[in-house]
């Protein structure tokens, strides 16, 4: 790393070199048997430079590949006259590495997968889920020409469970994800099986407006739209509905939404982002009031706001070394005033819908906050109880209208799902009067 | 690329394979009249697999010299899995596949690519009420070597290039967004002379600002080739990927070949062998030649897409559809070019025969769980008494596999394939996945809306 960076500085006016070593292990159990075990040991190198008043970038998969320097210089020749600003801000540690996760052997991961299967069998031998366990260990190191030279190590532990209907289609999906080891409990399994059994009675719902609970997982679809709105890049492009709305009420006053890159063992936690900016705990919405945007280092001057440590090398569909750093969530954290236990939230509803999973998070007019989502797993609630799985139902609306309709928030945080990836933690949230298209 | 070390890494224990690839991607991104990014990426890496027990062990790595270790790890992983899984037999292949594009994008300078992209984005931005025109040129060239311990040794070049655009219009607080794509093949040819198409799409994006939002409900819809391609990809294509059958015995019964699955006028085919489309390829990532496969014939389920593992699992013929995004991933069963075959009607006949419905254009992404699916479109027009009327916007459709395929009642007599590839599955986005369709009419589709 040091050698390569020296050579970079000999040819460039300023630079940042980024190195990520990744070790991954994946266990897949399908139909009650182990299907596959995958290992992964890869290296990604990314270089961003300033040269003759322009910026450029390139990536490689080996520190010996010195062509990365000339490729970055080549890239700079086509850019407009603008340079990157490299900074050296102090970095503080964040709890994002769990030795227990790092030390897990493949045998232990296999045994954990089989233990989860046994838990299901002990409750209901008819409900056998597919089990995926992913363990990741990352070593990330950034150096830049302003003197920044920091590294961190980070673990990830992710369990994905999917039960299947009598026809063989996905019925209930459950996710556990953190930077530390989490043991799935018998109570978790009982809850998944309870939901699964509710899917066996299929019901139709008439088109209309209903109270709708979005599970913590399904909240990811709505928060994808908010993420677009609070992205300072979109504010600068004049396509965010939240432009000039700082200090204004944009949601129910019981709701607070933060982006917390420093959450202890949060799966998105780390000491600094992929540009070397220290992560923060940023209040986006506090008691319904818009408090901040998520700001990249490049937008600081134009917006006269400090960077929030949210520039990450990933997109909604990829997490590749060649992705340029762009605004993304670290851990979105949703909290409500006077939250209710999840069961209480459901109990209070005479007739409504519980949306547990959706399809179409990535479609529609996301910048405008519009959503129109297929309810891939959802339940009709009548007199405070789940009565069956709703079939062929969509929910639609605009988050900037619907966040004002939030009535209650539950207590138990779940991992918010966004198509392939996840974006933080949310409890179930009750909205009053959401448009539902059914039969 | 020297394949000797790869061949030397293979042993005789069970089944073993390695694919090693050198990937070069060129990306140019433009916003309005500004270049946002130009990058040339080099990546190298390999993926080893072994089947010595009840399932595959596999390992991804970067350095060619790590291949023996990757095979050793794969064998150890596979041995952890109880059982004795076998693969469907395939012919041993020794072959070299070299590209012959009509206009090789690698011979076009970055300067020319950038200027063309800037020209189109500047043109779109020049249309009144267009707020942002963003364009991206992508070019992905890979040299892959695949070897296995059965004697197969394939060296294969693959190349795909194209331009994609996202055009956003804005009036007061309202924004609308459309997409446009050119290329999607190994030739640069389709990137030239697109001024008219760019201007037309920019104007449609502006017109959407005056369109009314759709009211949620059930509609008879006519889909254009882009939407039809996305529809068949989401509504049925993913379910025809036979790795689903590894997950559930019940699904084998649900998906039994010979079942009446759709309207008798529907024929669905997947063909990686057609040249010039995003999902075109010769050999898959198991060294098997991609085969044209009839999935639905006259409404009857007649076939599915297979890897060697899934073909063995259900006792069917291998189709050469196991593909991975790159060396970091396991090959999964993926579509090549899936399309609906043409029918007897003209577009004009279809519009004239629709009393009350919608004509929908431009795909904007979709998703499926197998039984249910959803997809978004860029916009639509109301059809009233056989005539196209006013524009409508914010349209997302949803459907159920078992009813929607039976509700297709008219199919047009021409087919067009989409220029933009792309498909997501298990965390892998594969740009080399194509689809297409004739215009088609589906009765009673659910559309979400307020």
From TrEMBL, chain A:
Which PANTHER family does the record associate with it? METALLOPROTEASE PMBA (PTHR43421:SF1)
Record's Gene3D superfamilies? PmbA/TldD superfamily
Superkingdom field: Bacteria
Q: Name one GO cellular component term.
A: cytosol
Q: Which family does it belong to?
A: Belongs to the peptidase U62 family.
Designated name of the protein: TldD/PmbA family protein
Q: Which GO terms describe its biological process?
A: proteolysis
Q: Where is the Metalloprotease TldD/E C-terminal domain?
A: 207-438
What Pfam family is a match for this entry?
PmbA_TldD_3rd
Q: Which GO terms describe its molecular function?
A: metallopeptidase activity
Recorded hits in InterPro entries, A to Z, give: Metalloprtase-TldD/E_C, Metalloprtase-TldD/E_N, PmbA, TldD/PmbA_N, TldD/PmbA_sf
Occurrences of domain Metalloprotease TldD/E N-terminal (ranges): 15-70
**What species does this protein belong to?**
Alkaliphilus serpentinus
Automatic annotation (TrEMBL), chain B:
UniProt KW Signal keyword: no
InterPro entries from the UniProt entry: Metalloprtase-TldD/E_C (IPR045569), Metalloprtase-TldD/E_cen_dom (IPR045570), Metalloprtase-TldD/E_N (IPR002510), Peptidase_U62_metallo (IPR051463), TldD (IPR025502), TldD/PmbA_N (IPR035068), TldD/PmbA_sf (IPR036059)
- Gene3D superfamilies for the chain: PmbA/TldD superfamily
Task: Name the keywords, alphabetized.
Answer: Hydrolase, Metalloprotease, Protease
Domain Metalloprotease TldD/E central, chain residue ranges per copy: 104-203
Q: Does the keyword Ubl conjugation apply?
A: no
Query: What GO annotations for molecular function exist for this entry?
Result: metallopeptidase activity
- Which intervals hold domain Metalloprotease TldD/E C-terminal? 217-449
Its domain of life reads Bacteria
**In this entry, which stretches build a coiled coil?**
none
An example GO BP is: proteolysis
SUPFAM superfamilies in alphabetical order: Putative modulator of DNA gyrase, PmbA/TldD
A GO cellular component term found in this entry reads: cytosol
Instruction: Tell me the ranges covered by the Metalloprotease TldD/E N-terminal domain, including all copies.
Output: 17-75
Q: Which family does it belong to?
A: Belongs to the peptidase U62 family.
PANTHER family linked: METALLOPROTEASE SLR0863, UNCHARACTERIZED PROTEIN TLDD AND PMBA
From the Swiss-Prot or TrEMBL record, give the protein name: TldD/PmbA family protein
Which species is this UniProt entry from?
Answer: Alkaliphilus serpentinus
């Amino acid at each position: 790393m040091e050698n390569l960076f020296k050579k970079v500085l000999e040819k460039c006016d300023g630079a940042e070199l980024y190195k990520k070593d990744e070790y991954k292990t994946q266990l897949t159990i399908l139909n009650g048997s182990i299907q596959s075990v995958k290992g992964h040991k890869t290296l990604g190198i990314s270089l961003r430079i300033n040269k003759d008043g322009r910026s450029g970038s390139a990536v490689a998969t080996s520190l010996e590949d010195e062509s990365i320097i000339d490729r970055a210089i080549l890239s700079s020749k086509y850019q407009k006259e603008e340079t990157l600003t490299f900074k050296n801000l102090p970095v503080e540690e964040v709890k994002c590495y769990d030795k227990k996760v790092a030390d897990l052997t493949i045998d232990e991961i296999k045994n954990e997968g089989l233990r989860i299967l046994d838990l299901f069998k002990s409750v209901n031998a008819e409900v056998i889920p597919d089990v995926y366990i992913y363990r990741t260990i990352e070593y990330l190191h950034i150096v830049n020409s302003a003197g920044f030279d920091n590294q961190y190590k980070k673990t990830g532990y992710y369990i994905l469970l999917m039960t299947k209907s009598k026809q063989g289609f996905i019925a209930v999906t459950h996710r556990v994800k953190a930077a530390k080891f989490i043991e799935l409990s018998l109570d978790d399994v009982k809850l998944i099986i309870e939901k699964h059994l509710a899917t066996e009675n299929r019901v139709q719902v008439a088109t209309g407006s209903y109270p709708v609970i979005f599970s913590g997982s399904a909240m990811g679809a709505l928060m994808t739209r908010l993420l677009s709105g609070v992205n300072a890049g979109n504010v600068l492009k004049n396509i965010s509905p939240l432009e000039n709305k700082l200090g204004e009420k944009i949601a129910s006053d019981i709701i607070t939404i933060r982006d917390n890159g420093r959450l202890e063992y949060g799966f998105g936690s780390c000491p600094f982002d992929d540009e070397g900016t220290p992560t923060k705990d940023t209040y986006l919405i506090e008691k319904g009031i818009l408090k901040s945007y998520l700001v990249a280092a490049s937008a600081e001057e134009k917006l006269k706001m400090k960077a929030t440590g949210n520039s990450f090398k990933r997109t909604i569909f990829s997490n590749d070394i060649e992705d340029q750093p762009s605004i993304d969530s670290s851990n979105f954290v949703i909290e409500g005033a006077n939250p209710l236990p999840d069961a209480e939230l459901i109990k209070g509803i005479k007739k409504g819908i519980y949306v547990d999973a959706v399809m179409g998070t990535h479609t529609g007019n996301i910048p405008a906050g519009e959503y129109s989502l297929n309810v891939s797993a959802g339940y009709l609630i009548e007199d405070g109880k789940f009565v069956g799985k709703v079939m062929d139902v969509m929910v639609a609306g605009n988050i900037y209208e619907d966040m004002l309709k939030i009535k209650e928030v539950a207590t138990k945080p779940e991992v918010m799902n966004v198509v392939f990836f996840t974006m933080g933690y949310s409890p179930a949230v009750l909205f009053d009067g959401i448009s539902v298209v059914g039969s | 690329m020297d394949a000797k070390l790869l061949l030397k890494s293979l042993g005789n224990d069970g089944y073993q394979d390695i694919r090693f690839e050198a990937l070069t991607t060129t990306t140019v991104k433009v916003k309005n009249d500004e270049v946002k990014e130009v990058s040339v990426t080099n990546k190298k890496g390999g993926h080893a697999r072994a089947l010595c027990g009840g399932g595959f062990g596999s390992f991804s790595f970067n350095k060619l010299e790590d291949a023996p270790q990757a095979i050793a790890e794969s064998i150890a992983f596979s041995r952890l899995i109880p059982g004795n899984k076998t693969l469907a037999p395939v012919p041993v292949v020794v072959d070299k596949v070299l590209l012959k594009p009509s206009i090789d994008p690698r011979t076009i300078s970055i300067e020319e690519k950038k200027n063309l992209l800037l020209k189109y984005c500047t043109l779109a931005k020049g249309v009144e009420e267009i707020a942002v025109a963003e364009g991206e040129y992508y070019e992905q060239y890979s040299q892959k070597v695949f070897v296995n311990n059965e004697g197969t040794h394939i060296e294969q070049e693959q190349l795909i290039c194209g331009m994609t655009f996202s055009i956003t219009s804005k009036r007061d607080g309202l924004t609308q967004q459309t997409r446009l794509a050119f290329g999607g093949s190994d030739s640069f040819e389709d990137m030239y002379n697109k001024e008219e198409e760019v201007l037309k799409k920019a104007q449609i994006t502006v017109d959407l600002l005056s369109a009314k939002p759709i009211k949620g409900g059930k509609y008879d819809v006519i889909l254009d080739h882009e939407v039809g391609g996305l529809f068949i990809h989401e509504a049925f294509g993913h379910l025809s990927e036979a790795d689903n059958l590894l997950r559930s015995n019940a699904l084998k019964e649900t998906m039994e070949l010979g079942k009446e699955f759709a309207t008798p006028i529907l024929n669905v085919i997947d063909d990686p062998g057609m040249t010039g489309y995003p999902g075109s390829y010769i050999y898959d990532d198991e060294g098997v030649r991609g085969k044209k496969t009839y999935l639905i014939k006259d409404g009857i389920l007649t076939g599915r897409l297979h890897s060697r593992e899934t073909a063995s699992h259900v006792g069917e013929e291998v189709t050469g559809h196991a593909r991975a995004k790159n060396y970091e991933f396991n090959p999964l069963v993926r579509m090549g070019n899936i399309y609906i075959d043409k029918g007897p009607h003209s577009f004009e006949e279809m519009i004239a025969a629709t009393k009350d419905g919608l004509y929908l254009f431009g795909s904007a992404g979709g998703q499926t769980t197998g039984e249910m699916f959803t997809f978004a479109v860029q916009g639509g027009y109301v059809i009233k008494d056989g005539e196209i009327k006013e524009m409508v916007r914010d349209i997302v459709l949803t459907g159920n596999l078992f009813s929607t395929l039976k509700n297709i009642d008219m199919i047009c007599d021409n087919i067009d394939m989409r220029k933009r590839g792309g498909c997501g599955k298990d965390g892998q986005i594969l740009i080399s996945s194509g689809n297409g369709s004739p215009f088609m009419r589906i009765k009673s589709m659910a559309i979400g809306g307020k």
